[in-house]
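Lab notebook, bench 4. Still working through the backlog of constructs that have no structural model yet. Next entry is a single chain of 180 residues. Request: give me the structure tokens for it.
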Amino acid sequence: MRTIAAAGIAVILLAPLPGSGQPQGREHVALSAKLSQDGVQRGGVMRGALIVTVGSGWHINSASPADDNLIATAASFSPPSGLAVAQVRYPGGSEKKCTFSDAPLSVYEGTVIIRFSITASAGTAAGDYPLPVDVSYQACNNDICLAPASLRVVIPVRVLSEGAVPVPVNDELFNRSSEK
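Model written out:
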């Protein structure tokens, strides 16, 4: 049985700046990631999911906020050579009326899943590759919005050796009925 870090993704969260005195919104939002299989074949594709958890009483703007002046939630991938990220899909937001806005806002609350795919080029050497991802957002409650912030997760992607077959993992996120 093969054990790798892809089944239990390591998460690195950035802490508020020491001595800043300003809430950064990081205490209201958490980030993790999961992959659809324990590795990817050279020339193959696997799916991934960023799981953004927004604390009770808070929301973040959706990827398509209702107002151009609002900070959209956005994932920025920095794939190493040999890997590519594509088909990034954000969920639709829900409408929410806040005291600081005349019009309803398009927001994310609770758990939000951003889906994507990872491709390993045919010439990529077998091994483990770190895939850093930064998610930028702005946390708000009904009355105020905090300064824009970001969180980082580093996803360990294993490129399999010739002949190795990937094993599906995290079925609860990646079976056809769970993907919207």
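Notes after review: The two ends are 31 Å apart (CA to CA). The helical segments are 171-174. Flag for follow-up if needed.
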